[in-house]
UniProtKB/TrEMBL annotation:
The keyword Amino-acid biosynthesis appears for this protein: no
Keywords per UniProt: Glycoprotein, Glycosidase, Hydrolase, Signal
InterPro entries in the record: GH, GH13_cat_dom, Glyco_hydro_b, O16G_dom_2
Taxonomic source organism: Drosophila simulans
Name of the molecule in the record: alpha-glucosidase
Signal peptide: 1-22
Keyword Membrane carried by entry: no
Gene name for this UniProt entry: Dsim\GD10567
Residues of the Glycosyl hydrolase family 13 catalytic domain: 52-449
The protein's Enzyme Commission number: 3.2.1.20
Coiled-coil residue windows: none
CDD domains assigned to the protein according to its UniProt record, in alphabetical order: AmyAc_maltase
Length: 630
């Protein structure tokens, strides 16, 4: 009998220690693949907290009313304090500033208004010490008309003659017209007559931003060299500007450009929306061009070693096209094509189902093995607090910090900075200046570009100039870093707690994801990982008090959950235990909860998979006992 008992006991032990014999733990959400297994190699950018700095408005160190590189270097510890791991700087290169730096006159020189190359090198050193990666803005579609390449092109210098998109125009009844009906993003014809060259040149943005001609291999090589130049200065990658515009259709065999068809919903012939941009946007060659830039980065890494250099692509395009920027079976593309869905698909009146659909849209379209990213705002979009509600700032930061992948925060949105009204007189954005006083507000990006609010001192601590380049927000005495540091549940402190949590949690970094609207008002995001805690982010989007039974939607949750992040609106505190069957959310409240019970950690831990097999072995052991007793 002892012999049989021993055999049965050993069999059970063997099973418990040999996972390969067990049933695989049921993956009940096979659609969403987690970023990586426990202990697997996660690249720095896959879980990064990116922060966009708009240098003109971040910190002015020399009192001229415009932010600069030394200002950024001085305040980089603030980014560290927030939990930021990488920062993308809008253009810092020599420029006449017709589009505030997106019109570059010299791609490898620092604009004097921002500082010197030595200042940039100093910034790189500070960033290295703090372990914050620096990403630069790469603006490939156009240069400034004050760029030497353009001057030489206009003068038909053989080296540069075809560097831009030139055309003699269409002759009709002896009159010269622009080559096509194409319209600039910033209004009016996209073609500008050049007296010197006696030809039109294309500019998809303002006329001081002539489009480079990517059908010329010399242009491609020159721009790849721009990437190499900054890579050798130690940057960790690039945000690529205005990607969908880089190529336009080639002229036909009579050297003519085709007109674009109309959109009937827009009756303003000067407005960009007047036409369907089928020949000037999203041309298939653009995708391959981005792949070729990725190859430049990878070759650099191969040669020089170090961590991944990355591309983030600005692509306001249909989702199927955006996804192609990730790469395909044979070529790698941008690690992070920007996900603008939270900007383009949600409004102040969106309900939880709309939020769910928006988040799932990205996750479901994303090719397997790629990394998601979540952009809440940038210097071209109304601030998140103005777009989706001042009282939703915390919940949106909570959402992006607990969704899988990287997130991108635009400076000031961690504080709850909102759009600032700017008069026509003070308006400087070319997109608005090209309109008129009655419609400029629809086009202006100045409201989201005002100086950063550091303190309640003069100029919000941004500068000590008598006049800053854009006015300071009127609310700076209530919304600033100094004050928010002191309030335990300020937007700033909630943001910090979220990124601290994210840094510590393997589940949030690499776990799987389930997104569900529990009602019109409540959105839930569940993150889970074998052998680790499960997290639940809950957003009450509306103004009612909501009572929810989490077990209805997530039956495998334990009866109680621990509160780990709250906002000013919450009635529960960090550390409280809440009941899964009746949980109350205050108006516009949001929470992050975590599983704690020993039962639950056992049930989600890898060993649970062996329970059915354990049952079979115990049964065998009983048979053994029975036989031994006979
Ligand atoms: C991008 C930039 C925007 C700029 C435009 C032209 O969309 O984000 O600020 O005006 O490209 O470079």
């Amino acid at each position: 009998m002892i012999k049989y008992r021993l055999i049965a006991f050993l069999a059970v032990l063997l099973q418990l220690h040999c996972p390969t014999l067990g049933q695989p733990y049921p993956n009940y959400h096979a659609d969403f693949v987690g970023i990586g297994e426990h202990g697997g190699d996660l690249k720095w950018w896959q879980t990064a907290a990116f922060y966009q700095i708009y240098p003109r408005s971040f910190k002015d160190s020399n009192g001229d009313g415009v932010g600069d590189l030394n200002g950024i270097a001085e305040q980089l510890p603030y980014l560290k304090e927030l939990g930021i791991t990488a920062t993308w700087l809008s253009p810092i290169f020599t420029s006449p500033m017709a589009d505030f730096g997106y019109d570059i006159a010299n791609f490898t020189e620092i604009a004097p208004i921002f500082g010197t190359m030595a200042d940039f090198e100093h910034l790189m050193e500070v960033a290295k010490k703090l372990d914050i990666k620096i990403i630069l803005d790469f603006v490939p579609n156009h240069s400034s008309d004050e760029c030497e390449w353009f001057r030489r092109s206009a003068a038909r210098d053989p080296e540069f003659k075809d560097f831009y998109v030139w055309h003699p125009g269409r002759m009709e009844n002896g009159n010269r017209h622009p080559p096509s009906n194409w319209i600039s993003v910033f209004r009016g014809s996209a073609w500008q007559w050049h007296e010197g060259r006696q030809e039109f040149y294309l500019h998809q943005f303002v006329k001081k931003q002539p489009d480079l001609n990517y059908r010329n291999p010399k242009v491609r090589e020159t721009m790849s060299n721009v990437l190499r130049f900054w890579l050798s200065k130690g940057v960790s990658g690039f945000r690529i500007d205005a990607v969908p515009h880089v190529f336009e259709i080639a002229p036909d065999n009579q050297n003519q450009y085709r007109d674009e068809p109309r959109n009937d919903w827009d009756n303003d012939p000067e407005d960009y929306g007047y036409l369907q941009h089928i020949y000037t946007k999203d041309q298939p060659e653009t995708i391959d061009l981005v792949y070729s830039w990725r190859a430049v980065l990878d070759a650099f890494q191969k040669e020089h070693g170090g961590e991944d250099r990355i591309l983030m692509a600005e692509t306001y395009s249909p989702i199927d096209i955006v996804m192609q920027y990730y790469g395909n079976a044979t070529a790698e593309g941008a690690q992070l094509p920007f996900n603008f869905l939270l900007i383009s698909e949600l409004s102040n009146s969106s309900n939880a189902h709309a939020y769910e659909g928006t988040v799932l849209k990205w996750l479901q379209h994303m090719p397997k093995g790629r990394t998601a990213n979540w952009v809440l705002g940038n210097h071209d979009q109304p601030r998140v607090g103005s777009r989706l509600g001042r009282d939703r700032v915390d919940m949106l930061n909570m959402l992006t910090a607990t969704l899988p992948g990287a997130s991108v925060t635009y400076q000031g949105e961690e504080l709850g900075m909102t759009n600032v009204w700017i008069s026509w007189k003070d308006t400087v954005d070319p997109s608005a200046c090209n309109t008129n006083p009655s419609i400029y507000e629809q086009y202006s990006r100045d409201p989201e570009r005002t100086p950063f609010q550091w303190t309640n001192a003069q100029d919000a601590g941004f500068s000590n100039a008598s006049k800053t380049w854009l006015p300071i927000a009127v609310d700076y005495k209530e919304v600033n870093v100094e004050l928010e540091r002191q309030k335990p549940l300020s937007h700033l402190n909630v943001f910090k707690q979220l990124w601290q949590l994210r840094k510590q949690s393997q589940t949030l970094q690499r776990g799987e994801t389930e997104v569900k609207a529990l009602s019109d008002a409540v959105l839930a995001v569940k993150r889970y990982l074998e052998r680790d805690s499960t997290y639940l982010t809950l957003l009450n989007i509306y103004d009612g008090v909501e009572t929810i039974n989490l077990l209805q939607s997530f039956p495998d949750l334990p009866p109680q959950l621990k509160v780990v992040v709250v906002t000013e609106r919450s009635q529960v505190k960090v550390g409280d235990l809440v009941n899964s069957t009746s949980l109350q959310l205050q108006p516009k409240d949001s929470l992050v909860l975590q599983t704690t019970s020993s039962y639950y950690s056992y049930a989600t831990n890898g060993e649970a998979r062996f329970l059915p097999v354990l049952g079979v072995y115990l049964w065998l052991a009983q048979v053994g006992l029975y036989l031994s007793n006979r």
